[in-house]
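Fig. S4 source data, part A: sequence.
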Amino acid sequence: PARGFAADAAKRPNDALERLIGRNRAVVLYELRRPSTSSELAAQLGLSLGTIGGHLGVLREANLIVGTRVGRRVVYCRTEAGHLLTGEVCGG
């Protein structure tokens, strides 16, 4: 059976966004509708921490997300450009 984000179609972004930036990266961006750490994203999506880190790096370089240090953790959230691509609001 499918595991991770592929098992739950409700967690998937729209097809156009997947085609634009790739399926896993689109899902990471979509999941950042709520601020999350890389460890939280890895657990939610069933992807390795290294894979999540790679996607976060690309999304950050593209100014689609920002990371904010909170104590020993870095919490990621979408930027305005990230909101526009997904049509959703961070934290909502």
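Fig. S4 source data, part B ends here. The first helix runs from residue 15 to 21.
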